[in-house]
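Q: What does the assembly look like in three dimensions?
Context provided by user:
Components: two
Sequences:
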Amino acid sequence: MGLLGNFYDPSSVAVIGASKTPGKVGHSLVKNLLNSGYPGRIYPVNPKEKEIEGLKAYPSVLDIPEKVEMAIVAIPAAGVPAVAEECGKKGVENLIVVSAGFKETGKEGLDLEKRLIHTCKHYGIRLLGPNCVGMMDTHTPINASFTKNFPLKGDIAFLSQSGATLIAILDWSLSAGIGFSKMVSLGNKALLSEIDFIAEAAEDPYTRVIACYLEDVVDGERFLKVVREATRKKPVIILKSGTSQAGARAASSHTGALAGSDLAYEIAFRQCGVIRARTMTELFDLAITFSRCPLPAGKRVAIVTNAGGPGIVATDAVEAKALHMARFTKETIEELRAGLPVEAALYNPVDVLGDARGSRYRLALEKILADPNVDSIVFIMCATAMAEPIETAQAVIELHKQYPQKPVLGVFLGGESLAEGARLLTEAGIPCFTFPEPAIEALRGLSTYREYREMPKEDLDLNYPNLDKKTVKAIFYDVLRDKRLVLLGSEAAAVAQAYGISVAPIYLATSPEEAVEIAQKIGYPVVLKVASPKILHKTDLGGVRVGLDLPEKVHKAFIEIMENVYRLLPQAEIYGVEVQKMMPKGIEMIIGMTRDVQFGPLIACGLGGIYVNLIKDVSFRLAHGLTYKEIEAMLAETKAYTLLRGYRGSPPADIPALIEAIGRTARLCLDFPEIVELDINPVFVYPEGLSALDIKITIS
Amino acid sequence: MGLLGNFYDPSSVAVIGASKTPGKVGHSLVKNLLNSGYPGRIYPVNPKEKEIEGLKAYPSVLDIPEKVEMAIVAIPAAGVPAVAEECGKKGVENLIVVSAGFKETGKEGLDLEKRLIHTCKHYGIRLLGPNCVGMMDTHTPINASFTKNFPLKGDIAFLSQSGATLIAILDWSLSAGIGFSKMVSLGNKALLSEIDFIAEAAEDPYTRVIACYLEDVVDGERFLKVVREATRKKPVIILKSGTSQAGARAASSHTGALAGSDLAYEIAFRQCGVIRARTMTELFDLAITFSRCPLPAGKRVAIVTNAGGPGIVATDAVEAKALHMARFTKETIEELRAGLPVEAALYNPVDVLGDARGSRYRLALEKILADPNVDSIVFIMCATAMAEPIETAQAVIELHKQYPQKPVLGVFLGGESLAEGARLLTEAGIPCFTFPEPAIEALRGLSTYREYREMPKEDLDLNYPNLDKKTVKAIFYDVLRDKRLVLLGSEAAAVAQAYGISVAPIYLATSPEEAVEIAQKIGYPVVLKVASPKILHKTDLGGVRVGLDLPEKVHKAFIEIMENVYRLLPQAEIYGVEVQKMMPKGIEMIIGMTRDVQFGPLIACGLGGIYVNLIKDVSFRLAHGLTYKEIEAMLAETKAYTLLRGYRGSPPADIPALIEAIGRTARLCLDFPEIVELDINPVFVYPEGLSALDIKITIS
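A: Here is the predicted structure of the complete assembly.
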């Protein structure tokens, strides 16, 4: 029994709101259960009927004499919470609410949904929906939905946050010959969400690949944790819509969901090994390929073609997708030379020429499949006069059995004349495409996933010594007492320091004498900056003085700054002047954090300084589950990394120190969810160590 | 008569190498001419036959008693030049050589090809091929090829540099229901190339859109000139393969063509209005859409759907492709509100809900088509239980007739249940897709092309006053006499100055006294740099001194530089020391040029300075046909543009002066093809004027 208990194979199902009238949802539900060959008992529930589709009907679920393991509800929304209560009393374990009229319709619906959730939680009922199409499992089999059709049997689990999309894909899949292990319409995701179904499918023996259409992820933190584990077991492919600004608007009006920024999704998917499909076509191209192909041992692709053009197109795609063209062994080349016509191209891509019959493809593929330098093969057939699609397909099917560990993908470029050959391939479990590019894209998916799977699991989870939470809390307390949300520079520096981040010493002085005292303590030269939470452009107001190397200068600068600011902004609330030690210049980097609604702290790092928004050389990772290696990878994505490693003869910077500072920043933001924004810009990175100069922290 | 005379509709065709044996190319050619319904006379030529397929055969083309306007040659390569000679004597105007064994096979074949070209040029014969499949025209009709099939009649002209690709696409098109005006297999492009066929198709009344599969462009300069004109008349869509490094290797082994760098192709296509397809699917999605749809007046797309999911997916695609979601007028919203159910989404994307029948689509589409804020419409139908694909298709077809100027594209997401509706749409000339994204991609193509067509034609062509060619020639002459290819800094500066580019004064001094004299003339402070063509890292050797503000310092620095360099590199050939005026700092830009094999000078500009290779903030244009507006657009593509316009309170830089400097650089590189590389880095751009500091020029 899987993580969802008997959700996919209940021994009995009640249909609450069952109907005798064809065309009504309550009728479709009963018919679908019957037609799908569902082996359990079915109980229609309708107080007005005695019998529906030859089954005895009951006035309520409580009147059913036997155990009811699942109930499907199709009555108007207003009545659903009461029915759920009855189900709870009856001991129903699984509830599918297809009725609409909940959260998606506004305040009143939201209240109904909350009551429904409350009842289900109270009784420990698994709830799918509301506002969904239902669920289908081809292996039980059970059609607990009001769709017109039932899917072909297969090993793809498809989860869809859009019911109509699920229906359309089901219709399309029947023509395209694509089978599913289960199809689930997620609806409003009031209790069960994609996270639960992904986790279950990862354990399900009938499922080989998990494909999802999602419009949002509600519990980002749990998603990261659970899906990271699931992808270690099976490929998870997600098409996430609502990526654009306009798209996000549409998503929120459609499902009432607050869509997170696409960047966070992009990073979240990558960090937990999800393969992101860019288009609907890609979602299913990938799903089919994963369902049929083994994972390639490496990135080395061989291409066999009977026409130069598509061979070049495929080669381009291989390079564009960061795969590699395989280099054959000498033996392979010699064998190909011996077997193929003299005009044939022996090097990858192999051109068996336009007059190639099945036997010539067989010869070439046999040698290439055997080559240890080849990890996967794409063979292309153009509909030439000599082409023998059926014989070729048969040869490939036979040969592939000898090398089941190498993915083989077909491209049959043509129409009717190749259709039968393509059908043979598909039936034998070899994906067959019309054009080369999608085949290569699918291979890329396999390869990306293999790499992810092979990455050693790291469980660092940002545990550092010397994290002084008490100091941070004390500073935040003072800031809140002062009715502020933005920390002063000296406060922010103290917070960073409490978390072990090396900062340029900075302290607040309230008098010229105190300023001098601080300068003496931290050492010259120093910078003086007016300390006022409201003043953003301090330099413009004469509120900053740099390079002060003598006590007299510090004393004088303090007075002048105060005068300048009072003259120009007499109303400004001024806390004093901050005295900061001037640090030697290092490589200017930025470390930042913005908090994503779904996924929590999104950590940024990259080239810092005043041009940071212009150059935009910044990369991102989510703090949840961040590891040392991920931080390193994040740095390596920036152009600044070249500087850090030592550019044009300058010495390399202390990258480990920077990685630790980023990790500690992430830890700080995880430990204090009240930090809504954080910027360290610049942080100077030296050949040894680093120094954070200007820190901005906003709390909530 | 088009640009290619009677090439597509000769009154008579001789098949040289005609054969009686089915399966032979020489037999297919005769059969295809007969079967295509070709209305002209056909003369098989074969010395061994009396009659082929009921037609009298002739021993040679010279024996044919009447005029022969076209000859198709299918004899072994070695005999082709002699046959071409006979054709010339006979007055044949058009020659199609399908035989292989020419340039693509090596040296011997190349010689044969050269002889063939020579003969055709001598007699003024239009030559297609060799090594091609032939040509088809559905309107003449004529099938002058050895393909198995003949295309459906249509208005897409398809040109293919790969013969097998053409055959495969033809086969596929018959199943997909796509028609062509003509299909041309370009082969080795010995004389006629894509440029000629594009120019002809642009004038051809039967052709509405030109689609090409290309592996290279041989005459880049002519391509730019001719295709720029063609795209003003008709859309030209090109899939260019061999974009990758590995792909380019395959291309060159396949056709013997030297593939240019992909960047140059990318820029060339953009500059002359070609729509570049990224994949084979896209090539035909675009071709079909252009063949059927009007150009939209703007970028505002309306989406109508019966399911939220695909609506969001389409909205995402609209934003991702830089189109806009239309904002309906108040009237439209009110009318939709009055006509649609209360749960329907009235704002774009419009959700007519899963239970929408044809009538509801009709209502929504009628209002939206009438809305002046809508430029194009994508309507999506998911295969729901209530969907009425046929009625909906009929409604759309009717409504579209009332608004023929607005593109309407269909997305029928489902299988068999929607097939008949999709067929109706396709027949009525409304493109119909299975998934939303390709429909939006096709709309983007229409929109990009419309923008290009609407751009006013600019004929500046970089004509500037005060271009002193004589000075440039004199400097190059001295450099060559000196057995160098790299100019000294002072020489390069003089070249730039001769072309009206403002440079920081720099002169070569051969003695300390001369250095002081130069400094006195150009003004202090100055920089001294050792002048030696072999020394790359001058600073490292102590070969540079900056900020010299007194004659004594200049004198001393000269001596020290010479001593340093002689000590460290006693063998170096040293010309002296260059004295350059130190300029005030401006915005650091780079202007550069690299010469592309196919398309000539490729001009770069962007953020300059020592981090130029790190930041890579550079954009490119080809010098041929470059205009003032294009240079402006090129600058606007860089992040540096933000700096130039005045960043964070700094004054804007003199952008017109920079544009002129870039234009003059392009002019210089066009006028002097011997300049193989040029770098001006940095050029300081000031609020008024600019100054080029460091100029490197390499000639050949």
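Follow-up: Chain A has four domains: 12-289, 294-454, 469-581, 587-699.
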